[in-house]
Amino acid sequence: MHTILLKPLALIGRQGTKALAASIFIGLALPQFASLARPLIGTCVFFFLVFTFLRADFGAIRALLRQPGRILLAWFWIVASLPIALGGIVLALGHDLVGPELALGLALMAAAPPILSAPAVATLLGFDASFLVTVLVASMVTTPLTAPLVADVIAGAAVPIDTSVLALRLALLLGGAAVLAQVLRWLLGLARIARERAALDGLNVVFFFIFAVGAMDGVADAMVANPVTVVTDALIVFVVAFAGIAAGLLVLAARFGAREAFVIGYATGHRNMGLLVAAMAGAVPDGTWLYFAMAQFPIYLMPLVLEPLARRMLRTPLPARR
């Protein structure tokens, strides 16, 4: 039974970027199951958190903590750059022009930490993800403090939940996942977790598939009823994704090097909106849900799109240390 379960999961895990890209389209092609999967989004987010804490190399994190300046700079960039950019656009255009539902979607994107799969994607693309894991953990730990404030400033009255309740739910979600992950680390042991890495990658992809199906709830109908809104949302989320990488390389490469700047930029432009949607128990307006659904497309497609660029960057020798 052990082999029967783990071998297919390992096979899926080894095809990580292709499996992620396929799952978003499969989710779109199964609208009849989307309404059934939508309530499972919160559960998927919880297990994404568990997997992140389960596989975190806390020894490497402790070593990297000896470089607090680099961690603080990367954390500040991830926490502040997108809220400043998106918040500035919303405030400049005005809530009336942007609309409350899109403003809430942009606020959730800006307030959310990077996607939990960012380190896994960095690894799949061939980059070292140790530093990114450290920054991701730091941003997640501070999310209950930063996210409600950012959402309130950008979206204002459009936030459908009291910010103190949102902070509490985020803290419980993150804390519960951290506790369960630690229990599993004790029960399974670090050696076995490392040995079954491919199977864990595959299980992660399975949860991403369920998440994708649920996130696509109502999207097929929206493509017919509101194609302009769908295209507009899609353009925004892809611009944010590419701009995050470009800005990271432009601003951070001198301090971190091109490879780390690339993965930090990737994390900047791909945000875990599902964490905040889960904390709100999925109670977001239809227009905000559509934006959240569109935001999944770059998350699922960009790893495959970026593979050629990653290969080119990896062929470029690292500059010699002075």
Protein architecture, described:
With 322 residues, the chain is mainly α. The chain contains 19 helices and no strands. It has helices at 2-14, 16-29, 31-37, 41-55, 58-64, 68-93, 95-98, 100-111, 118-124, 130-155, 163-188, 190-195, 197-215, 219-225, 227-256, 258-269, 273-279, 286-294, 296-315. The longest helix is centred in the C-terminal third of the chain and has 30 residues, at 227-256. The mean pLDDT is 83.
Comma- or semicolon-separated keywords:
322 residues, mainly alpha, 0% strand
Characterize this entry briefly.
This protein has 322 residues and is an all-alpha fold. Helix content is 83%, strand content 0%.
SS elements, strand count: 0
β-strand amount: under 5%
Q: Spell out the helices and strands N to C.
A: HHHHHHHHHHHHHHHHHHH
Mean pLDDT, as a whole number?
83
Helix count equals 19
